[in-house]
Amino acid sequence: MTPNKISIKDSFLQHGEEFRVLFGQLAEWKNVHAYLICGEKGTGKRTLARLMGAALLCSAEGNRPCGCCRNCRLAESGEHPDLIRIEKGNPIAPGVKKDRSTIPVEDIREMIRICSVRPTDGSMHIVLICDADKMTAQAQNCLLKTLEEPPADTCIILITEHTESLLTTVISRCRTVRVRAWEDEYILSVLERNGAPKDRALEAAAAAGGSIGKALELVSDDEYWKLREEVLNQFLKSTSRSEVIKISNQWKDRKQDSEKLMTILESYVRQMTEYRFGAARTDLSRFPAQWQRFSEKAGKESFLRLSEALSDARKQLQFNTNYQAVLEKLIFAFMGEGNLWLSSSESVSR
User: Fold this and answer.
1) What's the confidence (pLDDT) of residue 345?
2) DSSP 163
3) pLDDT tens per residue, range 247-285
4) Which of 45, 336, 282 is nearest to 182 (CA)?
5) What is the 3 state secondary structure string of 167-182?
6) Which end of the chain is more exposed for a tag (fewer CB within 10 A), N or C?
7) Tell me: the pLDDT tens digits for 85-128?
8) Residue 347 above 70 pLDDT?
9) Average pLDDT value for residue range 219-233
10) Which residue blocks in the chain are alpha helix, DSSP H?
11) What is the CATH number of domain 3-178?
């Protein structure tokens, strides 16, 4: 196995006993007929699915996937004849229109037809259904029949961020594998191996919420870092109530940035929470003095109020609530907590 493949597999083994047992079973072909891999975006669900498929197709003895044999190389490139990949917008059934936003029943029927034929090169068929929640109800019901009477030489792996969109009968017939968020330290090592500058890698790891994929996106997104600095200056450095209208006026026509705004504020609260209650203290040297003191001494109820303010703002933005009004309420919430920790020399008229 190449060093890269070893690091990828070993990184999943670090998640705990469940993954050690899983790969041990796959190495001995003691797999179940269907798996459901779920978890947040960017946690490596598709990477895990590919590794599982490669392990079942690998022709080596012992520790599998070896990453070196022909089957492993073909599985990694997605070109193995016995590896079937189903995803929205890229149909495998003839005559189905491309770029659909759902996975149609025709793709599931074509998969069933392919799996009814003897495997071409390996010992079994591996089916990867990416974004399984995008299957139509008809497609899920069609798949259900196969899950109820699975072929002996087929393993189906469903991948999703949204299990709530799957039929409970589909879920119940799969072994669920939940991929948890990654530790910041591991994400940081991935970013540094990809050449990210140390300072930006540290902040991207802290802002990614345990998602390697998100961290990799953020670290190279210059516009995101400009926006992050703007949010820091306006939402954390402002201390006077007279500034609230000015800030909200600057943001009122930028509703398209609301998701990034919320994500950035949430990442700042997460950093401060980890500083106050975590085992390791993150670098808050760029934060205003009052927020550094907040992070050192504030009680749990203060952090809870900030989290609730962000949660309420997200809920209101799902509806047609006045965007500027939501922003003003959020700014007041942060200013109210931060101003409690101003020193006498920093105090302003409120």
Assistant:
1) 63
2) G
3) 999 999 999 999 889 989 998 998 899 899 876 667 788
4) 45
5) CHHHHHCCEEEECCCC
6) C
7) 999 999 999 999 998 999 999 999 999 999 999 998 768 999 99
8) no
9) 92
10) 3-13, 17-27, 45-57, 70-77, 105-115, 137-148, 168-172, 184-193, 198-207, 212-219, 222-231, 243-251, 258-277, 289-297, 300-317, 323-339
11) 3.40.50.300
In the numeric block, the tokens 């008809």 are attached to 138
One-character DSSP codes across 24-47: HHHHTT---SEEEEE-STTSSHHH
**Confidence bin at 344 (pLDDT 50/70/90):** low
Give the domain ranges of the chain.
Answer: 3-178, 183-217, 221-339
Amino acid at the residue 97: K
Q: How far apart are CA 337 and CA 176, in angstroms?
A: 41
For 65, 67, 331, the CA distances from 76, given in Å and listed in that order, are 10, 8, 48
